[in-house]
């Protein structure tokens, strides 16, 4: 057998059907596809154009981030963390989002992708909040990452004089145009008809976006019920809780990814399970935002009912999926005083295989196995958090984080090498992002809030 690249001597967490963990293992790939995974001795006969000594590496599949706002990075650290949810969105987040120029959104997106690549994320599902859609798509096309992107889409007419039907037509037309221009036809980065969610989409848009996703083989991702406000609104305006209303519309199903889902009741959890709807949890963002996820979240119950639960990093402050995965492996143990809930191996499945399922890519990503895409992360075990190396899965989740990621391959292309991105000029990107952030925040007129003086 011949291969383009052979990594040999590594410890490999395969995530394959048997969940093999191979010590002194090897993996070979040609083009964008893995052609062999086994003990190094078993692959000794493979001829490869490039042979990499993996003796200091732990190899894992690329991580899958199923909810991330990639154009928030320029306002990182600026949003006060102690404000009510509605005030945070209405006064800070949304105005700052909408004041970004297209160039600023593009740079913010590249900065988020650099952070994801360098911490082992190879695929992401964007949160449906891109405004300068074409400019962002053009800017990230050559980063090497795999992604599904959605534009900022809502159509509810909050003002009595607004053209409600016109808003719906415009929203659907924009989504249709995105899918036509950036189809899910094998390319790494494609469009999805995502919705902002909450209560911002009308019933008509929910139904039509769902039809569009089913016709094109894509999916819909939307925010729902991080706090009680969503269900309170739906109860007041429809007489049903949020997920119950979506069920009545006929829009639940395997095409749909609902994000947050903290303030739901058992009847809503049952509807999600019965319909095959996916749920993405963002534990880091939920805890920092004070959503009440530990006492209220029904994630253990949903998991037991067979709901596919994936993970996301959400906003600007953290793009490290390993930090998120570690939280998932601990927070409900504490809330329920039950150490058996979401052990490390289940949390890792959420960050890989379950995320792949959300994206409809289970046959291509999420595991290191023959025929799968060569999306590979090499963690450097020559670091104190990795030694001694006893149980690779436990230590990946409990001891390590994204800072140990040495190299990353996506579709067989090495996009991170020796802790640096190979597809972008990091130093120039960081400098540009700093200057743009100062411009965005300066235009906003909002204060930099700090309990301690910044001189």
Q: What can be said about this structure in brief?
A:
The chain has 455 residues and is an alpha/beta fold. Helix content is 38%, strand content 21%.
Keywords, separated by commas or semicolons:
455 residues, alpha/beta, Urease, subunit C, domain 1, 9-stranded mixed sheet, 16 helices, 38% helix, 21% strand, globular
Q: What's the average pLDDT?
A: 96
What overall geometry do the principal axes of the alpha carbons give? globular
Class of secondary structure makeup: alpha/beta
CATH fold title of the largest domain? TIM Barrel
Kindly describe this structure.
Residues 59-412 form the Amidohydrolase-related domain. GO terms for molecular function: hydrolase activity, acting on carbon-nitrogen (but not peptide) bonds. The N and C termini lie far apart (62 Å). The chain is 38% helix and 21% strand. It has helices at residues 85-99, 102-118, 133-140, 164-181, 203-216, 229-238, 242-249, 266-275, 283-289, 293-296, 299-304, 321-328, 331-336, 344-358, 392-398, 426-444; strands at residues 2-13, 21-30, 33-39, 47-53, 57-61, 63-68, 121-126, 146-149, 189-191, 220-224, 256-260, 278-281, 309-311, 376-380, 405-410, 413-417, 420-421. With 455 residues, the chain is of the alpha/beta class. It contains 16 helices and 17 strands. β1 (2-13) and β2 form a beta hairpin. The strands form 3 sheets. Strands 1, 2, 3, 4, 5, 14, 15, 16 and 17 form a 9-stranded mixed beta sheet that branches. A 4-stranded parallel beta sheet has the order 6-7-8-9. α2 runs parallel beside α3. It is globular and about 70 Å long. The protein folds into 2 domains: 2-61 and 366-421, Roll (Urease, subunit C, domain 1); 63-358, Metal-dependent hydrolases (TIM Barrel, Alpha-Beta Barrel). The longest helix has 19 residues, at 426-444.
